[in-house]
Inverse folding.
């Protein structure tokens, strides 16, 4: 087996501490894996930002702006460091589809510990049809398909300018780009690759809540 990033052979380092974890498939060699920065320690309970306070100022702002936050909470696995930026650019923007396998096991492990007993309906955040054709796949759908429960594609997205080209204020005050194709009257888990300002997630969450979804959680790979 070879590392999906540097293509070096993955050689198991067998000891009594890792004898059971070795049976989980690995997509990165150890030197590459340690370059990913997992979120640990105290963080905002609403958005997963590293924070010493229970609810960060950004989430307090959303609470006031919306008159009550439509998002119950977001959980992210990784911080957005330089290495992650390179991996995402190659996977998401340059079409290296197989790189998504790097995140399969971490997503499954986190989902199993956080959401498996919440009886949620998994909904990937969509791309527009134009953006999907441009990239070849929707990265959020790839992540959602890694999870043990099947996902439902009940949101459609109106095509617009890339989020990455917008300023923070432009992202926050953009119009809701989503259309709901059918209501879901059970708790929903939105899946996406990155939580940056929280606008995209809240647009989707607000639409779902408006049409009868009692709670909306989000599960994102990265907290930007």
């Amino acid at each position: 087996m070879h590392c999906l990033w540097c293509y070096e052979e993955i050689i198991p380092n067998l000891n009594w501490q890792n004898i059971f974890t070795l049976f989980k498939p690995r997509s990165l060699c150890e030197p590459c894996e340690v370059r990913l920065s997992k979120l640990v320690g105290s963080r905002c309970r609403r958005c997963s930002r590293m924070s010493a306070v229970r609810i960060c100022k950004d989430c307090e702002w959303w609470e006031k702006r919306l008159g009550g936050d439509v998002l119950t909470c977001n959980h992210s696995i990784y911080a957005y460091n330089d290495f992650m930026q390179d991996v995402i650019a190659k996977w998401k923007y340059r079409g290296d589809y197989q790189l998504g396998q790097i995140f399969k096991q971490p997503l499954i492990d986190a989902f199993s510990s956080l959401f498996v007993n919440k009886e949620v309906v998994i909904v990937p955040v969509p791309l527009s049809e134009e953006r999907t054709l441009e990239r070849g796949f929707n990265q959020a759908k790839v992540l959602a398909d890694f999870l043990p429960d099947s996902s439902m594609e009940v949101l459609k997205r109106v095509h617009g300018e890339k989020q990455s080209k917008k300023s923070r204020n432009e992202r926050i005050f953009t119009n809701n780009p989503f259309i709901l194709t059918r209501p879901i009257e059970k708790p929903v888990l939105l899946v996406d690759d990155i939580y940056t300002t929280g606008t995209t997630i809240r647009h989707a969450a607000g639409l779902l809540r408006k049409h009868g979804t009692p709670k909306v959680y989000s599960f994102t790979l990265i907290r930007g």
User: Anything to note?
Assistant: The two ends are 31 Å apart (CA to CA).
